Amino acid sequence: MNKLYFFILLSIVISCKKEEKAIPVKKTEPLPAIIQTDERKIQLDTSLIGSFKSENLQKFYIASNNETVWGNLKKRTFIINELKKSETLGLNPDDYNIKKIKTFESKISKLDDADLALYDLLLTYNFQKYLTHLYKGKLNPKKLYNDWDLNEKPFDVNTILIKAFNDNDLALTIEQSQPKTDTYKRLLKALALLNDFPNDNIKTIDVIDKVVLHDTNSAMITVKKRLLYWKDLTGRDSLTSIYDSKTFEAIKKFQIRHGLAADGVIGRGTINALNFSKNRRKNQIIANLERWRWYADTLAENYFIINIPDYSLNVVENKDTTVVRKIVVGTISRKTPILTSTLKTVVLNPTWTVPPTILKEDIVPAMKRNRNYLKNKNITIYSKDNSVVEPNDWNENSPGSYRYVQSPGSNNSLGLMKILFPNNHSVYLHDTNHRSLFGRNNRSLSSGCIRVENPLELAQHILDSNNWSKEKIDSVIVTKKTTNVKIAKKYTIYQWYWTAWSINNSLQFRDDIYNLDADLYAKLRN
After folding, report:
1. Residue 27 pLDDT
2. CATH architecture of 300-351+410-500+514-526
3. Burial, 87: exposed, middle or buried (Cβ in 10 Å; 0-12, 13-18, 19+)?
4. What residue spans in the chain does CATH classification 2.40.440.10 cover?
5. In Å, what is the CA distance from 374 to each residue of 13, 391, 401, 405, 417?
6. pLDDT per residue as tens digits for the range 63-85
7. The L,D-TPase catalytic domain covers which part of the protein (predicted)?
8. How much is the pLDDT for 37?
9. Which residues participate in catalysis according to the annotation?
10. Is pTM, for the whole model, over 0.85?
11. H or E segment at 251?
12. pLDDT, the chain, mean
């Protein structure tokens, strides 16, 4: 009997395995054949192709019946020139083995079959790598940062490359592989503008106290040299140590380009920006180009785009900017995450549940000092069974076992409105009960969420498609009752980070508030 059971069980296992094998495997569409010409062709050893450890390379040469394809001088010249000038796009020619490729090309007529085969593979492999870097960057942000939550950018390099090869239009591959966004194009323009500046050897500016109009300070001579170099100060200047009116206007122009308060006062922020050399600015632009290749290559029809270092939120609808708002973003210790999502809900009169980080770092220490701290802020403590806990009954040794909820109202930490969108970081857009913060220049002050200036006007704009008027929103606010409104119009939200671009041939820079630029550039050139 035991043997009978064994054979029955064995037959079931075998039949299961057979069923598993029978599951159809989704096959990818075969690539079109590469159109060959009459140039010298060499049959490639598949083991040589395999030594590059590149699936894309193997698929490409399957389409050519494993024969060399770069016998045409014009096509080879195009690829070599593109790899040589990759630096103009912020990439590094050394990443594409350009020296070895140029050496092969200089000896092309003398190459034996083995070297010709290797040369062909080097051209394809490095051009594929170049196109991939243009499309989605050299580095993977998810491996660099734990708070960058961006969608994957799949890239079928062979489909683009083979079509362009067969159409004899390789230039099209460069165009199709790069982001289509205006900011990316303005970054390329910024890099070109910067490359036109001469090398600078201006010494570092060292100012202890603020310098204001009509002051006399020996550092002003170097300040003026910097302003002349960056073309914020034009014409001849005697380079005196007096802070004169002409230099005052130049400083304000410089401050505007760098997102600083345009008050003409030469303080720490202005000095720090003045002390950036040409090379440091170039490295900053290259780091930003890499970031834009991580982002979506085209933007939605209607979207919110947030530039964290610029403290700005723009609403763009049908390619028209309809709303511009100042924002407050996370501090360097509680960074605002980078993400792409879709707006879902406007919440009027929101409650606020204290998040774990704020509970640990802010609430618990304050409660230990003053048991009425939460009560004074209209925050109620709830136990696990949703019973209200009086402050004197709160157990300071297990603060995580409670829920802390602030009631709606003008004193609520989220203000009168918040906007929700799906994300893995529990962040959202919201109002604030500290509206004076929008008057500050440095607004890296929140715990990660984004506070928005004039939020009810923004809510009215979003809910216009819901037929919600200003009067209707105001009538809900007065009730102090939490109300959720699903957004009828589809808005994508891009919560991104960039610190450089150009506007009308004017270089624009922002303070790298999370100290990401220099480190990213170093990794790109490693």
Report:
1. 54
2. Beta Barrel (2.40)
3. middle
4. 300-351+410-500+514-526
5. 62, 8, 16, 9, 21
6. 999 999 999 999 999 999 999 99
7. 302-479
8. 62
9. 430, 449
10. yes
11. helix 245-257
12. 92
- At 203, give phi and psi (nearest 5°): -70, 165
Q: In the structure encoding, which two tokens stand for residue 407, read together?
A: 């009631």
Write the CB contacts of 139 (distance below 8 Å, at least 6 apart in sequence): 290, 520, 523, 524
Give yes or no for a contact between 379 and 441, defined as CB atoms under 8 angstroms apart: no
SS3 for 65? Answer: coil
Token output for 520: 């990213």
Distance CA 474, CA 173 (A): 53
Residues in the chain: 526
Q: 321: closest CA among 313, 331, 330? A: 313
- Each as own residue / partner, the long-range contacts of residues 261-264 (CB below 8 Å, 24 or more positions apart, any chain) are 261/441, 264/212, 264/213
Contact between 349 and 485 (Cβ < 8 Å): no
Tell me which residue has tokens 């300071």. Answer: 396
For 436-489, the pLDDT digits (tens) are 999 999 999 999 999 999 999 999 999 999 999 999 999 999 999 999 999 999
Name the token pair of 123. Answer: 């051209």
Q: What is the DSSP string of 291-334?
A: HHHHS-SS--SEEEEEEGGGTEEEEEETTEEEEEEEEEEE-SSS
> In 3-state terms, the chain is what percent helix, strand and coil (to 5)?
45, 15, 40
Encode burial over 107-124: b for 16+ CB neighbours within 10 A, e otherwise. Answer: eeeebeeeebbbbbbbbb
The per-residue DSSP string of 83-133 comes to HHGGGGGT--GGGGTHHHHHHHHHTGGG--HHHHHHHHHHHHHHHHHHHHH
CA distances from 265 to 202, 209, 277, 321 (A): 21, 11, 21, 32
